[in-house]
Write a structure and sequence with these properties.
The protein is of the alpha+beta class. It contains 13 helices and 31 strands. Strand 24 and strand 25 form a beta hairpin. Helix 11 packs antiparallel against helix 13.
Length: about 600
């Protein structure tokens, strides 16, 4: 058992690391762990807190991670530092907001060669909203392309950071690590909780263990929690006996207790996954707190798609896997649905396209499932002529045109930071995606921020890739939902061999319907394997065909065995073949391969 360190809460510091993706956040976390002796030489490896294979492969942080460091400062005192490493991609901003709620301070990492990016600004606003003390670190000063003076000036131009000092660091070379630790101790305030108040602990994350049930990660705000006491969750008042409490170093290590201000975990035999909601408050059942902690606002998924098992026998396994992932990622939404083409599956909601991709990969890898995902879409609001308003994300639920009064789609406020030479190309791209220009201002003489209102439907497929290609990789993007606005939208159905493939239907703006339908039928013609009969691929709006391609039949040479002789013999064989193909065409079912769904995502 780890030795307890409980002199007082004044020696505890809780802080988070926030940054734009790939600005060196995980590497700085590695250096802090090494400098404080939290990990030994033997345990040393890159991205130590990124324990998922996916995180290591993609070089990004997906899940927030907590770890406790012990640090003897220059003032002679020993401090407990609770670090929560957070993701940097816009799709995981909910993870960041949850982590910041458990902290009193944040390290803001900015790349010395790239400077302030869109997600940097978004994270600063989140930290300020949570009243956190921000410590600014300009990282990667060892790079040949580093321009610390320019980046420092960019940071000074941000109103919230005007007065802040800047620490220069190179996580790769280990420069500035001791300065960062001293700043954490001297500038970040200790937690404000009271030991003698009734227990209140905020659940900020949780994982499922098949043998121990749900293990919850908590920030203890008031009171003390130790093994043997009976606790209850304030949302449903269910009671549990605490079996073990502990901290992360970086693996779970048990302690005798957790006191106000500390971050750790609780094992209490939570068997039902749904009993431990992220944002809930845990209290002492014998002396309960009167008021629960404020928790987190419920996030609304922005991107939706349907996920089906390739083998329908795996439906129950998929259901269980989604439940376990929802425990670990409360921003994930799912509900059962059925498709004529794909059978039983789930309609899932995500915070963005990367979030969707990561969840699908986690389901396939961690739970050994083979899945098909349909084309992503967004949530639409439809006012019907009978006075009812419905919300739909699945094109299969789209009502007939004669029933619709008006359709509204979600719009997002988009901030794009780009070098000035790429402004023209980016403006063309955004206007092509039905964007409305709002504002443009220069951060310095070489970079500008563009503000646009844009339909979410236009950015969920390939907007980010196009933005990167038009800016040679230099532009960065951040977006947030603003409101629903009325649009002229229609549903396009895709038919294979005159059968509706409901999973390939999509909702699109009227002006883009023909172009997109044409591209999709052409793509499907390339992807769908040839059959022994001719297969028409059609796109239709309200049963009116607007685009068509035909997959030619595979033809067996039935007259190869006829040498010379009467032509009627050959004609008879050909007629027989023709009749067989006609029957096949009537009864045949065209299998749509998974590549068809993936191929549609890549259509320009």
């Amino acid at each position: 058992m780890l030795k307890d360190f409980h002199s007082n809460t004044k020696n505890i510091r809780n802080f988070s690391i926030i940054a734009h993706i790939d600005h060196g956040k995980s590497t700085i976390a590695d250096r802090l762990l090494e400098y404080t002796g939290t990990i030994s030489e033997r345990e040393r490896k890159e991205q130590i807190l990124d324990d998922m294979d996916l995180e290591r492969e993609k070089g990004i942080t997906i899940k927030s991670k907590a770890v406790r460091l012990h640090y003897r400062a220059k003032d002679g005192n020993e401090y407990v530092l609770n670090l929560i490493d957070t993701p940097g991609h816009v799709d995981f901003s909910y993870e960041v907001s949850r982590s910041l709620a458990a902290c009193e301070g944040a390290l803001l990492i900015v790349d010395a060669s790239q400077g302030v990016q869109a997600q940097t600004l978004a994270n600063i606003h989140l930290a300020v909203k949570n009243n956190l003390k921000i410590i600014i670190i300009i990282n990667k000063i060892d790079l040949a392309t580093a321009d610390t003076e320019k980046v420092n000036q960019e940071l000074k131009n941000i109103p919230e950071l005007k007065e802040e000092e800047v620490i220069l660091a190179s996580a790769k070379e280990g420069i500035g690590t001791s300065d960062i630790l001293e700043a954490i101790v001297n500038k970040i305030p200790p937690p404000s909780g009271e030991l003698n108040l009734p227990l209140r602990a905020l659940i900020f994350d949780s994982i499922y263990n098949p043998y121990q049930g749900t293990i919850v990660y908590v920030k203890v705000v008031d009171g003390i929690i130790k093994p043997g006491i009976i606790i209850q969750t304030m949302s449903n008042e269910k009671k549990y006996e605490v079996a073990e409490v502990g901290v992360f170093r970086p693996n779970m290590e048990p302690t005798k207790k957790l006191i106000a201000g500390e971050v750790g975990y609780i094992k209490a035999g939570f068997k039902n996954i749904k009993d431990t909601q992220v944002g809930d408050t845990i209290t002492d059942a014998s002396n309960p707190a009167r008021k629960s902690l404020s928790g987190y606002k419920k996030v609304t998924p922005l991107v939706f798609c349907s996920i089906y098992p390739i083998d329908n026998k795996e439906y129950e396994n998929l259901k269980a896997a989604l439940e376990k992932l929802k425990l670990n990622d409360s921003s994930l939404f799912s509900e059962p649905e059925t498709s004529q083409a794909l059978g039983f599956g789930f309609r899932c909601g995500f915070l963005g396209l990367l979030h969707m991709e990561i969840i699908q990969e986690r389901l396939e890898r961690e739970y050994d499932l083979n899945l098909i995902a349909t084309t992503p879409s967004v949530m639409y609001q439809i006012a019907k002529k009978d006075g009812k308003t419905i919300k739909i994300s699945n094109p299969a639920s789209f009502p007939s045109k004669i029933e619709i009064e008006k359709i509204e789609e979600p719009y997002v406020k988009v901030n794009i930071i780009t070098p000035s030479q790429y402004i023209g190309g980016i403006m063309d791209l955004v206007q092509d995606r039905r964007g409305t220009f709002k504002n443009m201002e220069y951060i310095d003489e070489k970079r500008a921020i563009l503000d646009y209102d844009l339909p979410l439907n236009e950015i969920i497929l390939d907007f980010y890739d196009k933005l990167k290609s038009r800016s040679s990789g230099y532009a960065s993007l951040d977006y947030e939902f603003i409101s629903y606005k009325q649009s002229d939208l229609i549903k396009v159905d895709i038919l294979a061999n005159h059968e509706l493939v409901d999973a390939l239907s999509f909702i699109v703006h009227k002006d883009k319907a023909y172009y997109r339908a044409r591209k999709i039928v052409e793509k499907l013609k390339e992807i769908i394997p040839r059959q022994l009969y001719q297969v028409p691929i059609q796109a239709a709006i309200e049963r009116k065909i607007i685009a068509r391609e035909t997959i030619k039949a595979l033809k067996k040479d039935v007259i190869a065995k006829c040498y010379g002789g009467d032509i009627t013999r050959k004609r008879k064989l050909l007629e027989k073949q023709k009749a067989g193909k006609k029957r096949m065409k009537r009864l045949g079912k065209v299998e749509i391969p998974q590549e068809a769904f993936l191929g549609i995502l890549k259509i320009e």
